[in-house]
Write a structure and sequence with these properties.
24% of the residues lie in helices and 26% in strands. The protein is an alpha+beta fold. It folds into 2 domains: 39-137 and 303-390, Barwin-like endoglucanases, CATH 2.40.40.10; 139-291, Beta Barrel (Ribosomal Protein L25, Chain P), CATH 2.40.240.50. The strands form 3 sheets. It has a 6-stranded mixed β-barrel with strand order 3-16-13-15-14-17, surrounded by 4 helices. A 6-stranded mixed β-sheet has the order 5-9-4-10-11-12, with helices on one face. The chain has a 3-stranded antiparallel β-sheet with strand order 6-7-8, with no helix packed on it. α1 (56-71) packs antiparallel against α2. It is globular and about 65 Å long. The two termini are 34 Å apart. Residues 2-19 have low confidence and may be disordered.
């Protein structure tokens, strides 16, 4: 979806929201040598964790994808991470699966988890477990065409051959004689200085904000004029720094911070079409796509699961791990009222994102389509993030 290793898996639009003056520094980096995972006393479980037993049918598919990835020989290169070695990571996933299936109810399940597993809290924004800012991402459904037309003038590009990456997905830059140089910025690409006439256009959209949404989320389902669907997943990015559109609009006084949501950005763009290109181009980061079958994939190259896949900073946290989120989500539009609902959910750490950097940030994948898009665009929740590993 939007992650280097496989899909950039989508930056949440709500990640654009500007930081309030009195709120934590979510982007603060951990001090050198600080641990991203803080062990909790043995037997301590996050509130509501035992309810995962009732949700095992929904958890198992995502859990099995993490197990499958962790069993790969290629997964070993990413461990140890945060003090967790590869063997412990794999055994934890496999044993958790056994307990989901072997225990007879939430009480027995919780007792077994408390005896066998150690819960770790994310160090959070302050390095001391002070909390995590949760945003969300999705796979938007957009309208497009396979050919350029007057009404479809905003292309999404495939991966250029001159973009070099490491085997882990880190961007090296543009290939030139004798090495690499920084890849062209969004402004340079959009100006036609680099990708024109290379035949990399996969699909054309009818709205520049739709193209922005696809870039932010790292995936999209494009409905074509004949009613068929063209599915796009993340292929790579130019390696340039990400700049939030919402934060730029707030900084320049064009939006109030409370208006920064998907709906708010769309409204602003419709009223200020002459400014859209300039503000989009302030974000140097640029995402490239590939046609896919089925659901988008995250940074582990496994399918992401709605409300079961979490994106975190993979320079800090172990890939594929069991995580538990204690936060809130906006009510779906079908609820008929506004507000938030508790979100206490067993998830898997299967993705990463361009704006998800530091222990104080995480991104929840919410699924495909308008309702997921609406909720993702309004999600900005302070909460706690926990990891579960077998006690050793």
């Amino acid at each position: 979806m939007r992650h280097s290793i496989a899909l950039l898996a989508l930056l949440s639009l709500s990640a654009c929201a500007a930081t309030k003056p009195d709120e934590p520094e979510w982007g603060r980096e951990l001090p050198r040598g600080a641990q991203a995972l803080l062990p909790m006393p043995l037997g301590t479980l996050p509130p509501g964790l035992t309810e995962a037993w009732h949700e095992r049918a929904m958890i198992l598919p995502a859990l099995d994808r993490s197990i499958g990835w962790t069993r790969l020989a290629s997964a070993r290169q990413f461990f140890p991470q945060a003090g967790i070695d590869h063997g412990r990571a794999l055994r934890s996933l496999e044993r958790f699966r056994e307990l989901l299936q072997e225990t007879t109810g939430p009480v027995e399940f919780g007792s077994a988890i408390g005896q066998e597993f150690r819960v770790f809290k994310s160090a959070g924004w302050d390095g001391q477990g002070g909390g995590v800012l949760f945003t969300a991402y999705c796979t938007p459904v957009l309208h497009g065409s396979l050919t350029a037309q007057a009404d479809y003038a905003f292309p999404l590009y495939g991966l250029p051959e001159d973009l070099a990456k490491t085997k882990e997905g880190a961007i090296l830059g543009q290939i030139i004689e004798g090495g690499y140089q920084p890849y062209p910025t969004r402004r340079e690409i959009e100006a036609g200085f680099h990708l024109t006439e290379k035949g990399l256009e996969l699909v054309w959209l009818n709205d520049p904000i739709d193209a922005y949404i696809a870039h932010v989320n790292g995936s999209a389902v494009v409905e074509l004029e004949d009613g068929s669907k063209y599915r796009l997943g993340y292929a790579g990015k130019n390696g340039r720094d990400y700049t939030s559109l919402g934060a730029e609009l707030v900084a320049d006084g064009l939006l109030h911070k409370d208006q920064v949501s998907l709906a708010g950005i769309r409204t602003w763009a419709s009223m200020n079409p002459d400014l859209v290109s300039e503000y989009l181009n302030r974000n140097d980061s640029y995402v490239f796509f590939t046609q896919i079958d089925g659901n988008p994939r995250g940074s582990l190259n496994v399918e992401v699961s709605p409300q079961r896949t979490l994106a975190t900073d993979k320079t800090l946290f172990p890939r594929g791990a069991l995580v538990y989120v204690d936060a809130t989500l906006p009510l779906p539009s079908t609820a008929g009222r506004r507000g938030h609902t508790p979100f206490r959910q067993l998830m898997l750490d299967q993705d990463t994102g361009g704006a998800i950097r530091t222990a104080g940030r995480a991104d929840i994948y919410l699924g495909v389509g308008p309702q997921a898009e609406q909720r993702a665009g309004a999600t900005r929740s302070e909460g706690q993030l926990y990891y579960l590993f077998l006690e050793e």
